[in-house]
Amino acid sequence: xxxxxxxxxxxxxxxxxxxxxxxxxxxxxxxxxxxxxxxxxxxxxxxxxxxxxxxxxxxxxxxxxxxxxxxxxxxxxxxxxxxxxxxxxxxxxxxxxxxxxxxxxxxxxxxxxxxxxxxxxxxxxxxxxxxxxxxxxxxxxxxxxxxxxxxxxxxxxxxxxxxxxxxxxxxxxxxxxxxxxxxxxxxxxxxxxxxxxxxxxxxxxxxxxxxxxxxxxxxxxxxxxxxxxxxxxxxxxxxxxxxxxxxxxxxxxxxxxxxxxxxxxxxxxxxxxxxxxxxxxxxxxx
Length: 286
Description:
- This protein is mainly alpha-helical.
- It has one domain (2-285).
- It contains 13 helices and two strands; from the N terminus they run H-H-H-H-H-H-H-E-H-H-H-H-H-E-H.
- A two-stranded antiparallel sheet has the order 1-2.
- The protein is globular and about 50 Å long.
């Protein structure tokens, strides 16, 4: 059951970019989609935790500051940067750069937890960075990956890495769903001042609803439930299928395609993710 839930989360996350294109093509800004994505997921997590009788402990006052910081840097920044990368470089490109996250996790672990990368982790880091650089240089059919697309793609990877670091510290103390019920509304509030709201078509609203409910609320719910049933390292490897899902869906729906070299270097990014988690397993055994 655990692997199936993680796979479901990876598929739903992989559909964020392709599904968002319906709203983007209808004139909705990436920032507005990011706002609604965080707001909708926040409402559903709040309803879920409110209806549950056993919600677990409420975050202590000293931890609430970290929850707020996570809502801004880990939710608002991730939602905005990922969708800006989709708008500027396409869904497949954005998804691959999102998986620069292991490189940021290794860097943050060294700085904040005093855990310098092992030789295998260093190889994984090098593979991921080489893959990201290769994808950016290789380009794709009909796409010019300018500085904006690369920048926002890398910011999304940085923000995504914060989920791992925040989860490492706080998911053992509090229910992930309860923390999401705090963090996602905070993220929406942080995004609101940057959004210009405009009337939207039924197609745009359907796109936004899918991204908010399916690709955010249900995806994070499936992932957190899956983690209760299996090892986090195995779960992260299964979740690394997200760029493949995004690439296939982007090609099927919109005809987006990286060049042959783009897909080659994209495989290096995913290989780096797998190497990184094998390195963690090796260090745990040692």
